[in-house]
Design goal:
alpha/beta, binds calcium ion, binds ligand C2E, single chain
Length: about 550
């Protein structure tokens, strides 16, 4: 038992595993998804290349005993389980034995949720021995047959592979029982068999998937037609079956010619991606494999992994940059906007445009945003020695508003770092307002009444609605660089911005114009009498130390 374990529920599960394990051939395991902790019966550590039967950092440790070809698929599944995108795990793949041999195992598991949040997964691993040659249920050849065929010369000819998957067989099994599910698998196999052309081959692969092989020069067009025929055939089955169950099929399509290495492992990897992509695109459709999409997918998956690791690893790789904000009226430094950065050894510096949306989608923006809040307020406290009322602007994402107690956290952090509420400006974008969720308005008024300044960010990027401005009365409106650039290039846009600034001033709101890059731009923009300005011309976002050197130390500011 790991000494790090404090959680009693988890402890109990681990004890049960150890009690039952001696009387079975299978290996039981439990995963603490929240703390990235894995526990498996100790028999597994005797059989496979595991150093220990209990460990943190699952993905890093799995790399030591999971067969490398199978790792991406597993990693993807783990990420989805952690993110709550999936609640069951059912995967046939290979572990490496103590002797270094790949061993096929079937791993199944079920996620346990608490208050809707994935907390644990419990499951069982069994060795499947030699792989399935044929499927008794559908009467088709199984994956081993496919593997054998792909190794032959015939397979290397022109043609395509179409991987078909039943959309939501799990749901059918859950609603109508496993026997009914088996019937659907059989019927689907029959439907596909009726549609394929003579000479094409059909295999049943894992769970609810089939593979059609065309190695006689079939074109992509013909593959799409085949998919449509199969779909219609399945629809007919559904009708004939009096709609007792309604289901669809998705297809992942690959042309042989588009992949260099037609090995079994590659074919499985690419067709799996293609089928998943079809499902991601809304199911009941067919997706043709594109190398660029696959690379994007790999990059994104790696980024998700790195971001998660960084969050779990004390935010290593994250950084806060500071960009100066100047007050035009007082012709002096007003403060800084805190901007998140992320870099890794493997990926270098990643653009916020790329990683912020991923942080939002995965919910990791909540811990990462909290970390930025604390870093930035600490910095604000440090910089008070140069400018007593140094201001800090912090971006808050709508996800933080919807899914965490960000209002309370901000107010507590202000106390912790001994900052006046008015020294902090929270930047929010209008997009969250569109849903006009009560949380948004609640937090807005909570912060406003505490004296925190609020800025409406990215004004002019699309959502802009004047009604919000009168309703919300932000302290500052930040004009996005998109609007600024348009105004610099186009007279009408300039007039619009000018009128808007006047109107905002009438309403006693302050304007901050972002994205000024040159002296010339500055001259034109200053005619609009903005209150604050921000842009590369005045200073780029930079490290704390650099900011201190460049904007604080050398300047004598009057207190
Ligand atoms: P934003 O809030 O609109 O931040 C201003 C962006 O404009 C920054 O991009 C900044 O580097 C860039 N910028 C400033 N002056 C100029 C200029 O003169 N020319 C040009 N071309 N760009 C300029 P950055 O740092 O890449 O951040 C992009 C976006 O990522 C931010 O846009 C913000 O929406 C988001 N973001 C950054 N940090 C955080 C954070 O801590 N939390 C959240 N929720 N979002 C963040
Ligand atoms: Ca901003
Ligand atoms: Ca902005």
């Amino acid at each position: 038992m790991s000494p790090q374990l404090k959680n009693s529920f988890l402890e109990e599960l681990c004890e049960i595993i150890e009690l039952i394990s001696p009387s079975m051939d299978d290996y039981l395991y439990v995963i603490d998804l929240e703390n990235d902790f894995y526990y498996i019966s100790h028999q597994a550590a005797e059989r496979f290349a595991l150093e220990n039967n209990a460990f943190h950092n699952m993905i890093e440790n799995f790399n030591k005993f999971v067969y490398p070809d199978d790792m991406p698929k597993l990693e993807n599944d783990i990420l989805m389980l952690m993110a709550g995108e999936r609640v069951t795990h059912d995967m046939l793949y290979r572990w490496i034995s103590k002797e270094g041999e790949p061993i096929w195992i079937n791993c199944r598991g079920q996620v346990i949720k608490e208050m809707g949040k994935p907390m644990y997964m419990v499951g069982c691993i069994n060795e499947v021995g030699t792989r399935q040659i044929a499927d008794n249920n559908s009467g088709l050849l199984g994956e081993a047959g496919l593997k054998e065929f792909l190794g032959t010369e015939k397979a290397a000819q022109e043609g395509y592979l179409l991987r078909l998957g039943i959309d939501d067989l799990k749901g059918i099994n859950a609603r109508l029982g496993l026997e009914y599910g088996d019937m659907i698998l059989r019927k689907t196999a029959e439907c596909i068999s009726e549609c394929i052309l003579p000479g094409q081959k059909l295999y049943r692969i894992l769970g609810d998937e089939y593979m059609v092989l065309d190695f006689q020069g079939g074109s992509t067009q013909e593959a799409y037609e085949l998919y449509r025929r199969i779909r219609q055939r399945v629809e007919r089955f559904v009708t004939d079956n009096n709609y007792e169950v309604v289901f669809t099929l998705s297809g992942g399509l690959i042309e042989y010619s588009s992949i260099e290495d037609v090995s079994y492992a590659n074919v499985m990897k690419f067709t799996e991606f293609a089928l998943d992509e079809a499902k991601r695109q809304g199911r009941n459709s067919c997706y043709l494999f594109q190398q660029e999409d696959y690379e994007k997918f790999l990059k994104r998956r790696e980024l998700v992994l790195r971001l998660r690791q960084a969050v779990n690893n004390n935010f290593e790789g994250f950084e806060v940059f500071y960009q100066p904000l100047f007050s035009v009226n007082h012709d002096m430094l007003y403060g800084a906007e805190a901007l998140m950065r992320f870099q890794t050894e493997e990926m270098g510096m990643v653009s916020p445009a790329e990683f912020i949306p991923i942080l939002e989608e995965t919910g990791l923006i909540i811990p990462a945003g909290r970390w930025v809040l604390h870093q930035a307020l600490k910095t604000c406290r440090d910089f008070k020695k140069y400018i007593p009322d140094f201001h800090m602007n912090i971006n808050i994402s709508n996800i933080q508003i919807m899914k965490s107690n960000i209002g309370g956290e901000i107010l507590e952090a202000i106390k912790e770092y001994e900052i006046l509420p008015s020294q902090l400006t929270i930047e929010l974008t209008e997009s969250g307002l569109l849903e006009s969720d009560y949380r948004f308005t609640n937090i807005w008024s909570q912060l406003k009444s505490a004296g925190v300044q609020l800025a409406l960010d990215d004004f002019g990027t699309g959502y802009s609605n004047f009604r919000y401005i009168t309703e919300l009365q932000p302290d500052i409106i930040k004009i996005d660089r998109i609007f600024t650039v348009k105004a610099l290039e186009n007279e009408f846009e300039y007039e619009l911005l000018s009128l808007f600034s006047k109107m905002a001033h009438e309403l006693k709101l302050k304007i901050c114009i972002e994205g000024i890059e040159s002296e010339e731009e500055k001259e034109i923009i200053f005619q609009l009498v903005p209150d604050f300005i921000q842009g590369y011309y005045f200073g780029r976002p930079c490290y704390y130390e650099q900011f201190e050197e460049q904007f604080l130390k050398e300047h004598d500011f009057e207190a």
